[in-house]
Amino acid sequence: MKPVFIIAEAGVNHNGSMDLARQLIDVAAASGADAVKFQTFRSEAVISRAAKKAAYQVVNTGSDESQLDMVRKLELGVEEHRELIAHARKCGIEFLSTPFDIGSLRVLVDTFNLPQLKIPSGEITNLPLLLAAGRSRKPLIVSTGMASLGEVEAALAVLAFGMTAPADAHPTAAALNTAFLGAEGQRALAERISLLHCTTEYPAPVGEVNLAAMHTMRAAFGLPVGYSDHTRGIHIPVAAVALGATIIEKHFTLDRSLPGPDHVASLEPGELKDMVRTIRDVEQAIGNGRKLPSPSEMKNIAVARKSLVAETAIARGTRFTVDNLTTKRPGSGISAIRYAEFLDRVATRDYQPDELIGEE
Description:
The chain has helices spanning 18-31, 43-46, 55-61, 67-72, 78-91, 102-111, 127-135, 149-164, 173-181, 183-192, 213-221, 235-242, 269-286, 295-298, 301-304, 339-342; strands spanning 5-11, 35-40, 94-99, 117-119, 140-143, 193-198, 225-229, 247-251, 307-310, 325-328. It is an alpha/beta fold. The chain has two domains: 5-286, TIM Barrel; 292-360, Alpha-Beta Complex (Type Iii Antifreeze Protein Isoform Hplc 12), CATH 3.90.1210.10. Helix 1 packs parallel to helix 5 (78-91), helix 7 crosses helix 8 and helix 8 (149-164) packs across helix 9 (173-181). The two termini are 46 Å apart.
């Protein structure tokens, strides 16, 4: 089993402050996470003036401003990305980001050549962005919050087309279907795409998490499936690992009481570290699936198991019976599983009570 890829999701919890952003990278690196993830967007390219805040955003940030005004304050520019990428490299943690528009995607690919990209749940029906992501040829982690299985398949068809069709090819419905079903498209998906199950609510109700959907997507598409968590605490992502999640993404913050849309559903630094440590314990505990005594168990076999033992004094030439043959510790003699095999055998020597029976 490959180690679970753990993404510490800083998102927009930097509140537009580079100092907070650098601190978030420090915390992510110290936690042992594999990557720290931010969000890359140009506010006006993503949100119209008519867009309202989500209900959770109103609860967390109030209703005095529009979604566009809220998000403008959380936007990071190209030079700020450059500085944060350098800081992440210095801290020894991968810098990952989510592009919300094609221009931002191009910055992450062409300017910074990030090793992989994350496609957010809200963009799973955004054909132009999916097409550009597929044509980037980058490995993609695709979040599926709010999506039906059919919508996930439709998104994969766009990605398969983007990864395999000529750059000037038009993504007609027939062409997308052909790309998705064809051997080349399936091979491209298998090589570059991982899916994340997700419940897009902040915080997400535990009863709506539906971790079993990971199995459904894995069976449907044959792709690695992980989990992006928005619940409170660390127990749900840990459970996802036990169910086979290959990637875990979790929001974190320096302080849940900070102003902003996502802080309340985020882990604080100590909790993030606890989650990473617990996930590493669980993935070790999953093991290889072969049912054999472990190395540490071997020394306990003789102590815990039982051997064939004389219940009473047994004279040479006497038959073993249920009255004179029993099983007792230690397990260093003939295994108690052979009890029936020895009944009616004849003892070839004398035995004292509690003496281990030898091979006859």
